[in-house]
Design brief:
Growth Hormone, Chain: A
Length: 410
């Protein structure tokens, strides 16, 4: 492992400190919101299916929106797009919190509001991610991508750690309000960035928006490295990421505990992700990243099987940390490879596909897991998904040499 100086070098840039500080703030609010909304849905309905539907409503818009959002991010002012979409998220979340606090929220309204928030998130993600080459020099880009994921996983720890006691003391509405404040803070920091106009703005429109979207999909699909890597990441996310999106039923049915245990368990995911994220980010190089991304899925499958195989909460915490660690290593590796290998003119569209994978695929997994959990219980379907993931891992290892040659050459 290289020293952690690679991370501090990336943070030595003024714009990077502003950008990642805002990201950490927004994502801490986001994780507080996710814990609060999922727990509220569980208390409101007592149904794993509806908890899965809430997660699905937030994440599923990426299926339609992300490719369009990527094409837009490649042709407009990305700072302005990020500001508009983050302000929209803050507004929708404020409405959600108010309805929860006043007792007027229904499951139907919650699904609608989560869908609106998820749609805005799908536009914000490529707008922000395409700015990273403009906030650090190219030599520091791998470290910046790692720091981006690291901020997400720090928030994944601090958000639940704050949300659990807050929900127990004041209810889920207050935790949701914190997310609205966090996103408005992140919005107000965007004008402070001093980004090269060449990186701030996308290219002039060369075709219809739909045509550019299709061009981006074709580019990724035909790329000898990006195509199979993104397909591998998508399938593994459907099979394995759903567990993290519908934690309340697992906490209640598998471990027999309440909201504070939910916060502890979610925080354990974040701790594992944080430690692993620091280690993989500190490598500071592309070589070997493809192999790491593939092996991480096998590790996540094993940890997921261990998580549901027992009702002993301490083992669940350990397995949760292992799941978070493996997911973090996989995500950082894939995003670093995608940022580095994509043609600059296609970067927004490629990253929008990665955003689609990280949002829509866990949503599909959560919906399937929630529905099957209603019929067969949570353990059986989760173990079956983990077993299928081992086959996906084997396919990835067979494609590894060709993928690595195409992705790591840059």
């Amino acid at each position: 492992m290289a020293s952690l100086s690679t991370l501090s070098r990336a943070l030595s840039h003024r714009d990077a400190r502003i950008f990642f500080g805002a990201s950490l703030t927004a994502w801490t609010g986001l994780w507080m919101h996710r814990i609060a909304v999922s727990w509220f849905a569980w208390e409101l309905t007592g149904s794993a299916f509806w908890v899965g539907m809430v997660a699905f409503s937030d994440l599923a818009p990426a299926v339609i929106v992300s490719p369009i959002a990527g094409a837009i991010a490649d042709r407009v002012d990305r700072v302005r797009l990020a500001m508009i979409t983050q302000a929209a998220i803050g507004t929708v979340v404020l409405i959600t919190g108010t309805l929860v606090v006043t007792g007027q929220m229904t499951i139907g309204l919650l699904l609608l509001l989560e869908f609106c928030s998820g749609t805005a998130q799908s536009f914000a993600q490529p707008a922000r991610q395409t700015l990273m080459p403009g906030i650090v020099p190219r030599a520091d880009l791998p470290a910046a991508v790692g720091l981006n994921s690291l901020c997400f996983n720090v928030a994944r720890f601090t958000g639940p750690a704050l949300a659990g006691p807050l929900i127990a003391w004041a209810g889920p509405g207050v935790a949701i309000y914190c997310n609205a404040i966090a996103y408005w803070i992140a919005t107000l920091t965007m004008p402070m960035l001093r980004i090269d106009p060449a990186q701030r703005r996308g290219h002039p429109a060369t075709a219809s928006l739909f045509g550019e979207m299709i061009d981006g999909v074709r580019y990724a699909a035909r790329h000898p490295g990006l195509g199979p890597l993104l397909a591998f990441a998508a399938i593994s996310a459907i099979l394995l990421r759903g567990v993290q999106e519908i934690m309340p039923p697992f906490v209640d049915h598998v471990f027999g505990r309440g909201a504070e245990a939910l916060a502890l368990l979610t925080a354990s995911f974040g701790v594992g992700a944080l430690v692993a994220g620091v280690l993989v980010t500190s490598r500071g190089r592309l070589e070997g990243a493809t192999r790491i991304a593939i092996i991480a899925v096998a590790a996540q499958a094993i940890a997921t099987a261990a998580f549901v195989a027992t009702g002993w909460f301490p083992l669940g915490l350990i397995a949760g940390a292992a799941i978070g660690a493996a997911a973090s290593v996989h995500g950082i590796s894939v995003q670093t490879l995608a940022q580095s290998a994509a043609d600059p003119a296609m970067r927004g569209r490629v990253l929008s596909l990665w955003g689609l994978i990280t949002r829509a695929c866990p949503a599909a997994g959560a919906l399937c897991l929630g529905a099957s959990g209603e019929l067969f219980g949570l353990r059986g379907p989760t173990l079956a998904a983990a077993a299928l993931s081992v086959l996906v891992f084997a396919w990835g290892m067979m494609r590894l040499p060709r993928m690595a040659a195409a992705l790591e050459k840059s």
